[in-house]
Amino acid sequence: VRFTLADLAPGTYPYRVAVLYQGEVLQQQKRAGTLRWLSETEMQTVAEKRKQIEALALEDGFLIANLMDDEGLKVAAMDIFREFMAENPEANEIRPFLIKVLSDLHLDQARQRESVRYHRLKNGSK
Description:
The chain has 126 residues and is an alpha+beta fold. The protein has helices at residues 40-57, 61-70, 74-87, 95-104, 108-122; strands at 11-15, 18-21, 24-28, 33-37.
C-alpha cells in the first residue's frame, strides 16, 4: 500500500502500520518504524549526487539504487532495484542488493520471493 503524506517538517518520525476493519484494529506492527522526511537541502544534495552518477554512468539504475540505499531512502532504492532487475533479468548478481533493501524494509514475503529467485537462477534453473 502506498499513499502520499502531507508535507512534514524535516526530521525523523516514528510510525506504525495497522490494519483496520470498520474502525477496529485487526492487526498492528509490533514495533514502530522510522520515517525520514528530507529537508530541501538534503533533497538537493541527493539530487546532485544522482546527477553525477547519471552523467558518469548513463543513468545506471544499480548505482542510483545504491545511492538511495546509502542515503537511507530505502523505498526509492527498492523501486529502482526492481526496475533495474526488470530491465536486466540476467543480472542476478545484483539481486542480493534488492534482497538487502527488502530486508531493511521488513518486507519478508518479497524478500523471500527474491531470495528463492536468486538461488534458482544462481543454480541454473528457472
